[in-house]
Amino acid sequence: MIREVYFFDFFNSLIVGDKTNCSVIIETLHRENVDVKKIYTNLFQRSLFRIGKMWDENQISIAEEHAATQVIESLMGLLQLKYRCGEKTDKKAIISCVDKEFHLIGARMAAHIFELNGWNVSFLGASTPTREIIKLIEKIKPDIVGLSFNFYLNFFRLTKEIDTIRKHFPDLKILIGGQGVKQTDEKVINKYENLFYFNSLFELDTFIKKQK
Ligand code: B12
Asked: Which ligand 1 atom sits nearest the alpha carbon of residue 69?
């Protein structure tokens, strides 16, 4: 775990847009060799969930939520430079948000975990149209495609996308993640073969390490 004192210092800085102090905390954690999955989960994800709740309860404005999100995204850039993998494999992954899904931070974290395991990752960010993902799969022939969805209304887009990928590439492993999954009928997800759901970076990391 990351010490509570770090969390509260980080969160209080984030909420007032003090990016400098947020990066000082990140630098300290990096120097202490803290696992980046812990920074992502116990600092960034925990802060963003809190911010989402505060926004939902009208304690902060949309602008304040946007500002905090931007700070987190820039700190992720910093972490991606600091936490790198020395040894590359020939494995390839495509990670993207489904069409019309704009919550990209979780997917970006997942992409980084693949990279730390030596994978070559094409991270497509938010809202990629399905036909574009299909074209890219044809071109780079990845071992895995990872899809993220958070906004529950995008569930039908997720299943449509899975169906389309399956039609074109029946054996391709598909990973899905994001908070939208919890709110939906898990039976729908379970009917697919070779499809895996993760909402924890630690479980994702274990899964990646088992891929040969
Ligand atoms: C920041 C934010 C935004 C930003 C996103 C910007 C960006 N660059 O990503 C913006 C402003 C775009 C936004 C928009 C909206 N948002 Co918003 N947003 C958030 C907020 C505050 C944080 C999201 C986040 O980054 N969380 C932290 C990450 C790390 O968590 P995560 O995504 O779950 O990812 C973890 C796992 O799920 C997993 N994972 C995720 N993806 C993947 C992919 C793979 C392949 C794998 C293996 C794993 C994996 O790994 C991650 C690490 O553990 C959340 C609050 C919350 N509870 O999260 C609301 C929240 C998600 N938003 C919400 C809503 C309602 C909206 C809007 C509809 C608001 C509006 N009226 O316009 C729109 C929808 C836009 C859309 N169509 O996508 C609701 C969603 C409710 C629901 N379940 O449907 C939430 C929960 C807020 C709330 N309390 O109600 N939002």
From this structure: 1
